Amino acid sequence: MIYDLLAPFYDAINADISYSDWADFIEKIFNKECKSRPELVLDLGCGTGKMTLELASRGYDMTGIDISAEMLDIAREQAEIGGYDILWLSQDMREFELYGTVDSAVSCLDCINHLTKPSDVKKTFERMHNYLIPDGIFVFDINGKAKFENIYADRSYVMEEDGGVCIWQNYYDKKTKLCDFYITLFEECSDGRYERYDDEQRERMYTVSEMRKMLLASGFDFIGAYSDFDFSEATDNSERIYIAARCKK
Fold it and tell me: Order of strands across the sheet with 40-44?
């Protein structure tokens, strides 16, 4: 799948993100909303494991789930270098299974937007509810309206990394709230030639009220939606929206 090929580009695409600041924000939510410090924490849609490793470095017992085995290979390698014992599972977030419950969970970098059917979002939330302990906290983010209309929109991006080139073209439909990504990758071969790979991906823009409704229907209490790590209130026009919810059983 395309994310296997994108794995080498993934961290470069997100190079401007401070995982340390993001983890500080998550821990502030844990400290405020959890009855006690979480021990077992799930990172759903963990990608190459940047947030998983950041939280592991802070003493949490982490599990990372992602559908891309190639991204998990990168995450596993980095965990071994850092000396972290992390359980990595290659699973679809809509149907993931754990060996037991976790105390809290995170999902970073707009994983939920990749679920373009509301029914799949609800299915994922229900899975999360099933594996969280009572009053466990779920923190995740979505791309907001500003991201889809001003950054994705009908724009193209070109990224170069050692041994490859990635061309990313976006087309956003305001009526359907769907953004199609047409991705072309050129991978350098040992003889100097380049292999070309093409794929399409899609994200959906969700509103805060839609997220709140689906969380409530899945057994969660809605804690809040924030536009930044300073806990300023998010609106649908925010570029990135951070959401916290509590599992009620």
Answer: 87-90, 61-66, 40-44, 102-107, 132-143, 240-247, 220-226
Number of domains in the chain: 2
Same structural domain, 100 and 13: yes
pLDDT (tens digit per residue) in 53-88: 999 999 999 999 999 888 899 899 999 999 999 999
Whole-model pTM above 0.85? yes
- 217 & 199 share domain: no
Cα–Cα distance, 66 to 50 (Å, whole number): 12
Q: Are residues 75 and 50 in the same domain?
A: yes
CATH number for position 73: 3.40.50.150
Angle between helices 118-131 and 208-217 (to 10 degrees): 50
Give residue 32's domain range: 2-143+206-247
User: In this structure, are residues 29 and 136 in contact, taking their beta carbons and an 8 Å threshold?
Assistant: no
Rounded distance between C-alpha atoms, residue 169 and residue 204, angstroms: 16
| Residue-by-residue DSSP string for 18-68 | -HHHHHHHHHHHHHHH-SS--SEEEEET-TTSHHHHHHHTTT-EEEEEES-
Distance from C-alpha of 93 to C-alpha of 96, rounded to nearest angstrom: 5
Which strands form 156-161's sheet, in the order they lie side by side? 156-161, 164-173, 178-188, 194-204
| Residue 92 shares a structural domain with residue 184 | no
